[in-house]
Amino acid sequence: EVQLQAFGGGLAQPGGSLRLSCAGSGFTFTGNLMSWVRRTPGKDFEWVSSIDTNGTPLYVTSVKGRFTISSDNAKNTLYLQMNNLNPEDTALYYCTVIYGGNTYRGQGTLVTVSS
Predict the structure, then answer these.
(1) Is 26 helix (H, G, I), strand (E, B) or coil?
(2) pLDDT at residue 16 above 90?
(3) Are 2 and 55 in contact (CB under 8 A)?
(4) Which residues pair with 107 in a beta bridge?
(5) Are the C-beta atoms of 6 and 22 separated by less than 8 Å?
(6) Which residues does residue 37 pair with via DSSP β-bridges, in sequence order?
(7) What is the dihedral of CA 72, 65, 38, 84, to 10 degrees?
(8) Which of 6, 11, 20, 5 is nearest to 82 (CA)?
(9) Are 10 and 83 in contact (CB under 8 A)?
(10) What is the pLDDT, as a whole number, of residue 54?
């Protein structure tokens, strides 16, 4: 059974940093597209970042230069280092994987950016 659990969210001040982690089980990270998405109340899910099957990081324009995605495939853990946060980054953050033709999304972790 594929399971994903994101954690590391919390309250940050504008300009601050947080590091999200996502622990996965039931599959191997290697060769599968891993991503972070986020959702704010009343809005659709927004894709934030991915690591493609070649290990290439991809980012939505609004987070380029501020967020860094990485993974430790040996630990089946995905990370999202978020720097220079702003209030528009406030959202529930989820990690996802496309595995076996299906998309899986775990429970999210809440990031709140406020002074």
Answers:
(1) coil
(2) yes
(3) no
(4) 5
(5) yes
(6) 47, 94
(7) 100
(8) 20
(9) no
(10) 87
Amino acid at 79: Y
Alpha-carbon gap, residue 26 to 18, rounded angstroms? 27
Amino acid at 27: F
Would the pLDDT of 47 be above 90? yes
Residues 96 and 12 sit within 8 Å (Cβ to Cβ): no
**For a pLDDT cut of 70, what percent of the chain falls above it?**
100
**DSSP annotation of 89:** G
| Tokens (6 digits) for 25 | 């089980």
- Residue 63's nearest CA partner among 89, 96, 45 is 89
State whether residue 114 is helix, strand or coil: coil
Q: What is the DSSP letter of 87?
A: G
Q: Is the pLDDT of residue 30 over 90?
A: no
**pLDDT band for position 93 (cuts 50, 70, 90):** very high
Phi, psi for residue 89 in degrees, rounded to 5: -85, -5
